[in-house]
Amino acid sequence: MVFCARNFRFDFPRSPLVMGILNVTPDSFSDGGHFLTPPSAIAYGIQMVENGADCLDVGGESTRPGAIPVEEQEEMDRILPVIFELSRQTNVPISCDTSKPRVAKAALEAGASIINNVAGNRDEIEMWQTVSRFGAGYVLMHNRGTPATMQSLAVYDDVRAEVEAFLANRMSTLVAAGIPAENILLDPGIGFAKTSSHNLTLLRNIRSFTRLQRPLLVGVSRKSFIGNFGKPGAVDQRLGGSLACAVWSVLNGVQVIRTHDVFETTQALAVLNAIEAQKK
Fold first, then answer.
1. CA 92 to CA 113: how far, in whole Å?
2. Which of the residues 105, 183, 200, 241 has the least number of beta carbons within 10 Å of its own beta carbon?
3. Which domains can be identified in the chain, with CATH numbers?
4. How many CA atoms within 13 Å lie on the side-chain side of 247?
5. Is 102 an annotated catalytic residue?
6. What integer is the mean pLDDT of 96-113?
7. Which residue in 64, 223, 238, 279 is the catalytic one?
8. Any idea what the Cα angle at residue 96 is, between residues 105 and 7, rounded to 5°?
9. Predicted pLDDT at 226
10. C-alpha to C-alpha distance for 218 and 239, rounded to whole angstroms
11. Is the pLDDT of residue 34 over 70?
């Protein structure tokens, strides 16, 4: 199995890819306001690569529940200088976390190689055509509604089956729109239009999504449901739970882990890999 994104190609099986999160926003749930200026964001991106990130995911609009939408120009002003420099100063693919076709186009022109679209549930032919034209990678994530409405739509008869059906059907639509299957990553959308119970069910059954024959991406880093286990703590005290989810996911067939904590995640996966190798 292969994942392609412009000039980048990853052949699986191989070591899991670690996607470092870089939010250039004032209001993201975990690191909002930390990297608002291009120099600080660029420096942090370079640091994540040095810490082992295989990819960087740059976002200029918070997608947490209840987040306030950002105008296209403001989103571009936040992310384009960062994407431009990181695509030139690092040797890893840069992903743009956006749901807006015009922002996606500008990001790809600035040097991005992947579009991570949390609004993959929308029928957005302009987005798909843009991704196809650039030969970019595309993260197809399950979601419902918008950040303002998604948690009210977290109602399922069988969350695993419904998410799998959505991903399969939408992947067929993307291929028909011109995006090659080998350019698509699948993300079950942990925390997006999901309750804590739904999140656990998806993680427990994550291996079932390997039937779709595409690399799987899981983004669980620091999400609120982790705080339901153990002693309650602040957002930045969810590292242990995040690592538990990452290791579980990789053991069950996931190829890409999206995380705020690159150093700790790469270390955890390196230890896992060493243990696995010792069995041979």
1. 9
2. 200
3. 11-278 (3.20.20.20)
4. 18
5. no
6. 97
7. 223
8. 75
9. 93
10. 15
11. no
Strands 94-97 and 114-117: parallel
Q: What is the tens place of the pLDDT at every residue in 118-154? A: 888 899 899 999 999 999 999 999 999 888 888 899 9
Please say whether the beta carbons of 190 and 223 come within 8 A: yes
> Is omega for the bond preceding 93 within 30 degrees of 0, making it cis?
no
- Is the pTM higher than 0.85? The answer reads yes
Q: Is 250 left (phi over 0), alpha (psi -120 to 50) or beta?
A: alpha
Is 64 catalytic? The answer is no
Burial (CB count within 10 angstroms: exposed 0-12, middle 13-18, buried 19+), residue 141? buried
Of the candidates 238, 258, 279, 280, the residue annotated as catalytic is 258
